[in-house]
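Regression test attached.
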Amino acid sequence: MATDPVCYMVIDEDETDCRTHYKGQEFYFCSDFCRKKFEQDPDRYVKLARSMDIGPDISC
Ligand SMILES: [Zn+2]
């Protein structure tokens, strides 16, 4: 399982078509909405994903 770095929803890699590569890592998203948010400012969300105690940026 993976975590949507934007809303922190748990994502099943086999179930989603919303994914993107960034700096050699693969990220999965619950929706195109979160994927677009990530692609607008990937560094911000990569940082958030590394420090889960900050909490999600948005909820969806
Ligand atoms: Zn999401």
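Expected vs. actual: identical. Residues 2-52 form one domain.
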